[in-house]
Amino acid sequence: MSHQQDISRLLQGHSFIELSARERAHSLLDPGSSRELAGPFERLYSPWLGTQGIVAQADDGVVICKGLLDGQPAVIAAIEGGFQGGSLGEVGGAKLACALELAAADNRQGIPTRAVILFETGGVRLQEANLGLAAIAEIHAAIADLSRYQPVIGIIAGTVGCFGGMSIAAGMCSYLIVTREARLGLNGPQVIEQEAGVAEYDSRDRPFIWSLTGGEQRHACGLADALLEDDSTLIRQQLLHFIASGLPATPRHRRSQHYLQRLLAMDSSVQADAASARQLFQSGAKP
What we know:
alpha/beta, 2-enoyl-CoA Hydratase, Chain A, domain 1, 7-stranded mixed β-sheet, globular
């Protein structure tokens, strides 16, 4: 039994959240098929962090693995939430965007490569500012391109969640898988508190935060397609199910009018809570 097969066997039925980004990617691909691209031995350090007194990481916090999913070609991009809060800069963002672009190029050449993005990210890396923003824009464009051919599946497990420009990337995925521990939002709790005040959004009130942006709530509001327990085997099974389902008839990012109608119906003079948010998003015609 190979080393990768042994890892996959040991991880079956275990927590997905407790795994590193690299372990998550390997656990999802078919045993023995995973190989890492632009890995840490390539020494792709961010050229900007060191000058600001920040220790860089050799893979810049993004792991790209290519292999097979149920015998079919696939690429997995996993963001390491433990490095700089999963923030994306020039190098990590370029790795992720290029992986998606190459998958789209595969499909144009008749190779049906799927893509999976494992989101654990606060969004753009502030230390790299516009370079990070440009990289995230390239990721958005690459998702839109690839999703014309094959499903792009996002997974938000925990503990960082998915915020900032990468929350838009999550919304563009063909399917989105979340756990109860996951969080999804355009702005993080501390940012909202800073701009609107603690009375509006207390970043220390964890039950309140999860009640609005947690995985269970986002799934109930139709912003995620599957809510799962923190189990590596269950997550892989759901991933394979979505791949087998093919492209959705109407992807979420094509349902803008439905969501705009919901937001226009919102009474912003009243403090939002979990119940009112669910009622808002579950009302009206189905998208």
